[in-house]
Specification:
Oligomer: single chain
Helix content: over 70%
Number of domains: 1
Strand content: under 5%
Distance between the termini: 68 Å
Structural class: mainly alpha
Number of helices: 3
């Protein structure tokens, strides 16, 4: 059995599934913030939301591709689980960081938009 192929397959399937799930949650729930930030301009909000989604995919899929190669030896199932745990742990941390970065950006933009409304 080729443990490298097994590890790579599980890594890619799980990582891509997690990325798609997080992107969908961010896309769906981020739209509300963007519509508010852009004062009800749904066309602009949806466009920005889609651009953010594409950027999210590019960053995460790019990192997944770079992190795919395993330099050590994978000789048994235990090592498969350990390598997957390490690699998926990094993916989950990056997805979490991207989530909080998106939230921070949304809140900052929202507070700026509300400040401009109060000044006007």
């Amino acid at each position: 059995m080729n443990y490298f192929i097994l590890t790579y397959t599980f890594y890619l399937v799980i990582s891509i599934a997690l990325t798609i799930w997080v992107a969908k949650v961010l896309f769906k729930n981020g739209r509300i913030f963007l519509v508010d930030i852009f004062h009800g301009n749904t066309l602009l909000a949806d466009s920005v939301n889609k651009l953010l989604e594409v950027g999210f995919y590019l960053i995460n899929l790019g990192y997944m591709s770079l992190a795919l190669k395993e330099g050590g030896s994978i000789t048994n199932t235990q090592v498969v689980v350990e390598v997957l745990s390490f690699k998926l742990g990094w993916i989950i941390l990056i997805l979490g960081a991207m989530h909080f970065l998106n939230l921070a950006i949304f809140f900052k933009l929202r507070s700026r938009a509300q400040k401009h409304v109060k000044e006007a």
